[in-house]
Amino acid sequence: MRPDLTISIISADNLALLIPCLRSVFASTHHVTLEVFVVDNASSDGTADIVRCEFPQVTLIQNTRRQGFSTNNNQVLKRGTGRYLMLLNDDTVVLAGVLDDMVVFMDSHREAGAVGGFLLNPDGTFQISFAEFPHPILEAIRPATNWTAQKAKRSSEPFEVGSICGAAMLVRREVIAQVGVLDVAFDPIYSEEVDWCYRINQAGWRIYLLPKSKIIHYGSATMNREVPRKYELLLSHKLLFFRKHKGWMAANMYRVTLGVVTALKVIWWSGLSLLDKQYMIERKLQQTLLTRVWKL
Question: What is the spatial distance between Cα 247 and Cα 108, in angstroms, rounded to a whole number?
């Protein structure tokens, strides 16, 4: 019988967080049937052996060399048999009943193509896990990551969003059949879930965030260790998103606006640094950013 939910978890030398994540998945889920995959992304910390020993119900995929986020998850998206398929970071802890509730929501909302879990920092505070789709000018001035943060903090009912974080993203099987899997052009990381959500939305599906489906996410604990030159990669993949979906004009609009805004910040912080040396660090950061922008 087909399971209700297939879960894809990628791990690379992150055993200390992977094990609690897996334990939480199985301990917190009581009503839906699970198919769980762990993609061991060429780990050297014994991940494969420990997962086999402690979680024999998990299907293990072992990479012989490191792969990117999209490539790794696509292995599971193409093999998984669940009615729904979920991307779940290895640095998460799933709280009680969350996966049950997410499946129930999807079963009762046929218009929903995807739902996101409500992410919390390890101390229980709110973590931004959704955004509206980026606009080339507005994204360059102020990234659109917290447009309804206050609404999310005080809301208890599901609400529609543009894109959701790939750390905890559940997608309907029919959606994947229609729009395809993650785009590997965004490997190793960044903007792949925005691209996926955009394609899902353009195909006529709605995307929701579920405030009651709380998942603890350690976030940068993994990213700081695994992704070199993160900021350059983030900028270049935003540029790729605009080029793919909006064309070269929009991509260049983003690049130029970002350059102009950063140059103005350099001037501002340079002026302040003449008055107080504490502003010199910020000036240097903006100068470094400006150099990176023009290299895009």
Answer: 37
